[in-house]
Write a structure and sequence with these properties.
The complex is a heterodimer. Chain A is an all-alpha fold. Chain A contains 13 helices and no strands. The termini of chain A are close together. By secondary structure, chain B is α/β, with parallel strands linked by helices. Chain B is 38% helix and 25% strand. The radius of gyration of chain B is 26 Å and the shape is globular. The chains are: A mainly alpha, B alpha/beta. Chains A and B meet through helix 9 and helix 10 of A and helix 3, helix 4 and helix 7 of B.
């Protein structure tokens, strides 16, 4: 077990170097000069341009740029962005917001997805099941930006149930609307996954045996059907958390959430290499760690899984 | 005791049956309307009595038993008749009442120990929730006691393990423990040991007998094995296509079967008394045909098509922290197979018999020793030569459900080996497939169908046709008939015998079932824990087993001593 975790953490090193190198190279290869773009139509003096290029190491060849970046990263110096703000500061502001949004969305999709999925699976083919299936298909089919604007208009503006935009002061309360929109698509997948899993496990031999033992129906459903059905669902939710932490560019954009997605979008628009790679580096870590947690959780849910090969 | 007598007893004495089923009919709602799975079932079980229902798959035996514990699938319902449990009609009882009865009044031991324990809970937990649900004391000591009573050694520690850490036999003991934990008056045992090795089967049934006798539990035993039913039950009920066709005391029914179906069952039940299947031709009187088998018999003794010399297979077992230990799955096995004969390798699970088969098929590399096929050491075969070898040696596997690709139709399944080996063109391949279907006695119209539309026996015929497609010389049958009902099994064994005679095939037959060996094999190799413990001609091994292990295997055949020799003309 300890060996397994250690081995998995060791894997982080090549994954980390590989992804940062790739992302750094892609930003480097982008056409256009980011410094020139900073000044728009004005033509700054050559000395200013040179000074800026030197500050961001843009005058160096690619490998030197990348090497310097990695070196700085290991000394916890992420540098400053093109507005001279320390990147570390802006990440420290953005990540908690995105984490809140992600967790809220995860809770929404897990609770409602599993609950509806279990009932649909137990009543497969009945009216409730068919309705839920059609609705979930609809949710999957409608793009997030449509869903986002409709929710913003209906619940935020017309009904006034929640704040239509989030702005600077993000908290659990005013993140509810973007969290619902963000969670909806995965909610539909969680629901369908749970439903399929439940309706399959319902006919398992051990469920029949559990009933034959004289257990009550709720007990059979919770201890024998639900417990076993959660294994694939939890795996999906865990992998999904990694994705949610990466920020939702569209959702954060619609509701003006100052999260990672927003930051990343701005940085890409400005070809801000250091910021993009810094965000990606943190995301890689988040991904690897959530995946590790999912694997550990998986073994806890299913005792047949062993880490020793 | 006949059923007429029971009625008289009932009128005069206060003793009444624990379970009485009267005129029971069960229907299933399917896509194409209602299907009657059980048309007319009736039986009665007195306190302490064991009654067996015998029949093939689809006869309605399991459905009848499931109805008695209220566990019919959702699309099934009791459409007529009564199920009286201790006088109370429970055919249409409420779910609440059934939950009260299950566990405490009616227990169940299900068929497949592999799938009937929930893999995510510890064994102890699964016993404990049974005790708890039925209001019995459910402390760790009680759990251990229940498991120990079912014959599980070291029960307190074992209770903390998960099902996947148990062998099949141990799991079945755990399931028996669960079924009997609340001392029900009636135990429904649905094929409780058909998934286990014969010797394990015997031990478990003995223990179940002992427990139910001590507790005075009545048992409703469901089985397809007439021998087992006769050996274990006081009364046998034969079901066929949803009807009870015959019922009576076990021995009487076996010795003097009245219904034609029962007679067929008794005749085809493989037992120690049965003999090597005689091919149809040899039984016939056509003098011209008689010459051919003689010629074949002469060429049989000619050469040894397969020689196994000092074969060994070592698996490395991990023991944590980089240490490994050697496990000899096959340990110094030598035997040879003569062309045109059948050699059977018998043994229990884990004896290494399937590993030998895999090595002969070149699906596993031997650690040591030689496999000489037709004078050539197979270890040196590579690329094209190995490809050619595969054409001459073909397998038939146990599970006809798992070994056919569900996405391939029958034509494609049988034609595939021809295509892979680039034999003939499309027209000649189709002709060959038609011939093969004729050989295995299936209609040519079956070519366009898919495996899920066929029965188990039909699928196994397809597997045989596929194996024959390349005109192989040797066929390795790995438990090829173990998954089939007795009647179907008898048909497939006859087919294999006929094919051997017509095509001069050599069989290497891997099985745990000695009764089958008796019917098909010329030579027997008995394996135990990787070692070859006894070899010899089938008659020698059966009549004078030298090794205690062979004797134990022979003794474990259910009903072996009870069955009378079938009338062979």
């Amino acid at each position: 077990m300890v060996r397994f975790i250690f081995r998995r953490l060791l894997q982080v090193i090549p994954v980390f170097l590989g992804t940062t190198l790739l992302v750094y190279y892609m930003v480097f290869a982008l056409p256009g000069d980011p410094i020139a773009a900073l000044f728009g139509d004005r033509q700054p003096p050559q000395s200013v341009i040179d000074a800026l290029r030197a500050q961001y190491n843009l005058d160096q060849p690619f490998w030197v740029q990348y090497g310097l970046f990695i070196k700085n990263l290991f000394t916890f110096n992420l540098g400053v962005d093109f507005t001279q703000q320390p990147i570390a500061d802006s990440l420290a502001r953005a990540f908690p917001v995105t984490a809140m949004l992600a967790i809220e969305a995860l809770i929404i999709q897990a609770v409602f997805g599993i609950a509806f999925g279990v009932f649909a699976g137990l009543k497969k083919g009945k009216l409730f099941d068919s309705t839920v299936l059609v609705v979930s298909l609809l949710v999957i089919a409608v793009p997030t930006f449509v869903l986002g604007f409709v929710f913003q208009l209906v619940f935020g503006v017309q009904l006034g149930w929640a704040k239509p935009t989030v702005g600077a002061n993000a908290d659990w309360g005013n993140l509810i609307l973007p969290a619902v929109v963000l969670g909806l698509v995965s909610f539909a997948y969680v629901l369908r996954l749970t439903r399929a899993s439940v309706s399959e496990n319902m006919n398992a031999d051990y469920v029949r045996t559990a009933t034959a033992k004289g257990l009550s129906r709720p007990r059979v459903v919770v201890a024998h059907i639900l417990r076993n059905s959660l294994i694939p669902v939890v795996t999906y939710l865990g992998a999904n958390l990694g994705g949610l932490m990466g920020g939702a560019i569209v959702t954060e954009g619609i509701f003006n959430v100052p999260g990672v997605g927003n930051k990343l979008f701005q940085a890409i628009a400005r070809s801000e290499g250091p910021t993009i790679v810094a965000i990606v580096s943190v995301l890689v870590l988040v991904f690897v760690i959530t995946n590790l947690l999912v694997d550990l959780l998986y073994a806890w849910l299913d005792p047949r899984i062993r880490y020793d090969q | 005791m006949t059923s007429a007598n029971i009625r008289i007893d009932e009128a005069t004495a206060p003793v009444r049956p624990i379970l009485e089923i009267k005129d029971l009919a069960i229907t299933f709602k399917t896509g194409s309307g209602e299907v009657k799975a059980v048309k007319n079932a009736h039986l009665s079980i007195m306190p302490g009595e064991t009654v067996a229902i015998v029949g093939e798959s689809g006869s309605g035996k399991s459905t009848t038993a499931l109805a008695a514990i209220g566990l019919l699938p959702n699309n099934g319902r009791v459409s007529a008749g009564q199920i009286l449990l201790d006088g109370e009609d429970i055919a249409h009882a409420s779910e609440k009442r059934m939950i009260e009865l299950r566990g405490s009044h009616i227990g169940m031991v299900p068929q497949d120990p592999m799938s009937n324990l929930n893999p995510v809970w510890k064994i102890g937990y699964q016993v404990r929730e049974t005790l708890k649900a039925n209001g019995r004391p459910d402390g760790p000591d009680d759990v251990a006691r229940v498991l120990a009573e079912a014959g599980l050694p070291d029960a307190a520690r074992r209770a903390k393990q998960y099902p996947h850490e148990f062998s099949g036999g141990m799991r079945q003991r755990a399931l028996i423990a669960i079924g009997l934990s609340c001392q029900p008056k009636l135990l429904i045992a649905d094929e409780p040991t058909s998934a286990l090795d014969v010797t394990v089967q015997r031990r478990i049934l003995d223990h179940l007998d002992k427990m139910t006798t001590e507790l005075g539990t009545s048992v409703l035993l469901i089985t397809h094995d007439l021998g087992l039913a006769a050996e274990r039950a006081d009364k046998v009920i034969v079901m066929y296509q949803g009807n009870v066709v015959e019922a009576g005391p076990s021995l009487e029914l076996l010795r003097n079967p009245q219904h034609p179906y029962t007679r067929r069952l008794v005749e085809s039940a493989p037992s120690l008394a049965s003999r090597r299947i005689q091919v149809a031709k040899e039984q016939g009187v056509d003098a011209g045909d008689l010459l051919a088998p003689v010629a074949a018999a002469q060429s049989r003794v000619q050469d040894e098509v397969l020689q196994i010399k000092n074969l060994r297979k070592i698996y490395k077992l991990r023991q944590g922290l980089g240490q490994t230990s050697d496990f000899a799955a096959v340990d110094d096995v030598s035997f040879s197979v003569k062309r045109g004969t059948t050699t059977a390798i018998v043994g229990e699970s884990g004896s290494g018999k399937s590993t030998v088969a895999k090595m002969v098929l070149q699906l596993e590399k031997p650690s040591e020793g030689q496999i000489i096929f037709d004078g050539v050491d197979t270890a040196g075969l590579k690329g094209k030569e190995l490809f050619k070898f595969r054409r001459r040696v073909q397998p038939i596997f146990q599970d006809p459900y798992g070994s056919l690709d569900p996405m391939y139709n029958i034509f494609r399944t049988i034609e595939e080996p021809l295509r892979v080996h680039k034999i003939g063109n499309a027209a000649s391949r189709e002709k060959k497939v038609r011939e093969l279907l004729d050989q295995v006695a299936l209609p040519q119209s079956m070519m366009q169908r898919y495996p899920n539309e066929l029965s188990g026996g039909q699928r196994q015929r397809i597997a045989i046709a596929r194996a024959l497609a390349l005109d192989p010389e040797v066929i390795i049958c790995d438990e090829a008939v173990s998954a089939l009902d007795v009647l179907v099994q008898a048909q497939v064994l006859n087919l294999l015998a006929d094919l051997q005679d017509n095509l001069g095939l050599t069989y290497l037959f891997i099985t745990h079932d000695l009764a089958v060996v008796r019917q098909i094999a010329d030579h027997v190799c008995v394996m135990e824990k990787g070692k070859l413990v006894e070899t010899g001609s089938t008659d020698d091994v059966f009549d004078n087993p030298r090794e205690a292990y062979t004797q134990a295997l022979l003794d474990a055949i259910p009903g072996g001593s009870l069955l009378l020799p079938p009338a062979v003309a």
